[in-house]
Amino acid sequence: MGMRYEHIKTAILVVLVASSLIMTYHxxxxxxxxxxxxxNQHLQEVEVSSKSKIEDHILPTEVLYHxxxxxxxxxxxxxxxxxxxxxxxxxxxxxxxxSDAISPDGFLNYVHGSNSIEVLYPDALPLKTFxxxxxxSQTSLPNxxxxxxxxxxxxxxxxxxxxxxxxxxxxxxxxxxxKNLAKDDIKELEDKMKRTYAPSFVYKExxxxxxxxxxxxxxxxxxxxxxxxxHLDIEKYKEALFNNPDYAxxxxxxxxxxxxxxxxxxxxxxxxDVMEYxxxxxSTTEVMEDYNLINRSFSFVNDHGGWxxxxxxxxxxxxxxxxxxxxxxxxxxxxxSNQGMTEIYQRWGNAExxxxxRPLYRFVRxxxxxxxxxxxxxxxxxxxxxxxxxxxxxLKDISIGYQLEEVSQQPKTxxxxxxxxxxSVKLVPSWFYYYNSKWYRIAPPTEGGDxxxxx
Length: 455
Prior knowledge:
This protein is α+β, with helices and mostly antiparallel strands. It contains 9 helices and 24 strands. The chain has helices at residues 2-29, 41-45, 77-87, 107-111, 127-133, 183-196, 234-241, 290-303, 377-385, and strands at residues 62-67, 70-74, 91-97, 116-126, 135-136, 145-154, 160-167, 172-179, 198-203, 211-214, 219-228, 249-253, 256-261, 264-269, 274-279, 312-318, 323-330, 333-336, 343-348, 353-359, 362-373, 395-407, 424-435, 438-442. Strands 11, 12, 13, 14, 15, 16, 17, 18, 19, 20, 21, 22, 23 and 24 form a 14-stranded mixed β-sheet that branches. The protein has a 10-stranded mixed β-sheet with strand order 5-3-8-7-6-4-1-2-9-10, covered by helices on one side. It is globular, with a radius of gyration of 29 Å. InterPro entries: YycH (IPR009996), YycH/YycI_2 (IPR042274). Pfam families: YycH.
């Protein structure tokens, strides 16, 4: 009996040991089917608004037309779009640097010469970015930039059109071959420019550039908007920008909410409705090409549906500091603010976003508006030149835009209810000038003085 009992215990022990070995083997060799989560997956899955196309956010701001000693200009959105739509019919190729064929002293006269049309962008664009906006049969493009399309017309012995891409600052001119160019369409557009564009004159005090200004007085509408956050949710931005948004820590102080997740911080100014995201660590070593900065900056916002309005357009960039700005435009005029309330700003590391600042609100238009007459171009020049130690060679541009101002105004009786902020905003037409690498506003006579550098 005792021997039989011992055999049973031995058998049970063998089974237990064997089971233990089998379980240990499976534990050691088990490979679960984990789903790999990429660093940017949140940006791809969480959307604040719908997706946009890059061509809707990189647009010209002005068209100039020169005929003999007469100059004409237009900021009108329809006029600019007509040229964009015309160029979309073309097929570009054979980009060739022809800068050496034109002397530096003759550059300005060549670009602004008679029977020339200029389609101006707000800042220089890489050719590879331009390739995404229009049709190119040339796949390999030089790593160069341009800020305007120059169309030159010759009428003798027949109607002939040449197209160039020009970098005004660097005095570089690139000829391009264009197919599908309809001469009748060019003639029709040219005829309209003569009839409807605003006559302008040239400010030539800067020896390196001409500044074209309207001859006649300008009147524009000043409009009041309520600002509404009803379509925007900071929680969605947290999900889009943080790896683990549920673990983000929130701190609140006067007019400010701060969310922190590791080395990433979202700072929300609850008074101006401006959000700023900061990534304190640049963890990548990838080197980014110039054109990729524009592409990635656009895709970064697009991936989380951050283009809440198509009115935010490419405005400026710095290839050295890797900063880029998309500004709010109204009727094809830029809107400025002293508190970053009209700008989507980004700063990149090697290939990773380090700083991202943007408004959270949207504009809700109020029916009330008033017509305002701007100071004449001649008066504006006088005001600028009166500044102490004024150097005309530091003056790069004089243009019209809007200044965003906060106003206190409540909804009218019976007006549809929306979630209003404490302050409404007013877009005031104003003159601005770009001096020594910074934009300044020329305040209306009733306000007096210039504003500090604008955002």
